[in-house]
Each structure stands twice: as C-alpha cells, then as structure tokens.
Amino acid sequence: MQISKIRIPGKVMLSGEYAVLYGAKSVLIPTPRYLELSEVTAPPEIPYSKVVDTALKYPIPQIEEYESKAGIPHIKIDNREFYASDNESKSIKLGLGGSAAEAVGVVSLRYERAGLKRADYSDDIFKHAFSIHKQAQSGLGSGADVALCSYGKPLKFSILKQSHQIEFINLKKTKNYIPLHLVWTGLPADTRKLVSRFQNRFADSNEDTLNQLINISNRLAESWFVSPRNELFDLINEFNEIMRECAAIAGIPYRLPIHDELEVWAKNHGGRAKPTGAGGGDMILLVGDLPIDQLKQLIIPLRV
Predict the structure, then answer these.
(1) For the range 55-58, what are the long-range contacts, defined as Cβ-Cβ under 8 Å and sequence gap of 24 or more?
(2) pLDDT (mean) for 50-56
(3) Distance, CA of 244 to CA of 119 (rounded, Å)
(4) Where are the beta strands (DSSP E) in 186-255?
(5) Phi-psi region of 258 (alpha: psi -120 to 50; beta: other; left: phi over 0)
(6) Do 52 and 73 touch, CB atoms closer than 8 A?
(7) 203 pLDDT band (50/70/90 cuts)?
(8) What letters, b where the CB count within 10 A reaches 16 and e where it falls short, cover 265-275?
(9) What pLDDT does 200 receive?
C-alpha cells in the first residue's frame, strides 16, 4: 500500500531553553523546512537511525490488529531540508529537531497506513513519539520539540508534576506581529552533551540563578506576539544576560563569536538576536525589522 508523503515540520524554540527542563514555559513555532516520509516496498540500503528503528519497533495498541496482518512498513526518509552544506560541502544538521520529527513521522505514517488520520490522533501520536524519542535519546530532553512536531502549530510547552502542559497560540489574534528569521551559525550543536553538562554542573547548586532563568522564561513566554516591541526586546535582553550567567556556571559553550556579532548587529538595526535551542551552534533567532539582505549566512524566514 503506497501512502502519500507525510511531512513533519522542523521546530524552533523562541524562548525557554534549558528552563523548560525545570518547569518553565517554552515557546515553539514550526519552521518552513520539512522531513518527508513515505512507505516503500523494500528497506533502504542505509540503515535506519536509532530513533526510526525504535519507532518502527514500538508497539501501538490502536493499530496492532492492522499491523499483525500488514506488517511493519519500510520507510523512505528525506531529511535534506534539515541539513545544509558547509564550505567544504559537508552536510551539517541545522538543529531543527530532526530526531523529534523522525519519531513523530514514523508514528504518524503507521497510523495513516492503518486508515487512522494523523490529524484525528495528534494526542496519541505525541504520547507515543515522546516515549520513543525519550528511549532513543537516553531519557534526555523535555519533549517540547516532539510536541511541536506532533501538532505542527505554535505552542507554549511546560512540564508540571511530570505532566506535559500544552497551550496553542492563535496567531490570528496576535496583537503585535514581529518578523522572525533564523540564521545558521555554520556549526552543529551537540545538544545531548550540552544539556547533560548543564543538568550535571548547574541546576542542583545554583537555585537562585535557576529561579531567575525560570522567571524570565515564563515572562518572555507570555510576551511573544502580545507585548509591545520595546517590552519584548527588554525581556530578550534579560533572558540573554541570565543565560550567559547560567552557561558560565555550567561551563558550556552556549554562545559562539557569531552570536555576539549578530546580537550587536541586530541591536544596531533596531532588533534583537538570541541563541535558540541548546546553543553552541545550530541556529540563531533574529527578531525585528532587520536588513536581512546584508547577511551572507543561510537564513530561514519564519512565516508566522
């Protein structure tokens, strides 16, 4: 049975990095870059990633009867939009949540081929994909990226008493639209390593600073697309300063020279810039009406 391609959007975390692991609100929106999956008749020559392999073996009760007859699908995965080429033509990940998209995509495809529409089972797909992703990633991560990939729409995400809290953002009612762009640093971030070091070196012994990070993350989460631009910019400034302090305490390379360069450049042109995700590479978020055509790096407009 040939299924139409399933497309899973990449994610960008506007704010709440690291703090989301400790109960703070994060804000995520989809990117116009997609992972595509389709069913094929034979397994691919290149072995599946750990996430895809885990997702294919993961038991899903709702489709167990169907798959007992039809079997588990072979899947072709096109992840080219989640990568870019460096100066030496090497393929490097952009940091758009590729592993989360894989988990969500495989589960979604399995539902679709069993005749269950993905849009009708978003909650179940998120639950299964989160378990798969956590298993494949050795328990690291909040699940925020899996939520964004599962629902494919802007949302606020937090963890309360080990339960995921998801609030969708209706951008049609936004009071203060502001242009957003992603700029690629040209270097990949080792998200698992950075998050692990942050949790091991920082959180347990720096409660006051952690509380400051949680507080500013929650305030910033409520300000996106709502607060006047000057108020939003002040909160981004505060978030950046506290994250600098947190990264220094944890001893993680959260910022690269390009982060500092673009932050100065954005401020000089009436906007703001901040790392997004784990930092240390991947993408930088630009906020405001900025002369993007001046930049030579790969730029992804966020059409919100």
Answers:
(1) 55/102, 55/103, 55/106, 55/107, 55/129, 55/132, 55/136, 56/106, 58/107, 58/128, 58/131, 58/132
(2) 96
(3) 40
(4) none
(5) alpha
(6) no
(7) low
(8) bbeeeebbbbb
(9) 85
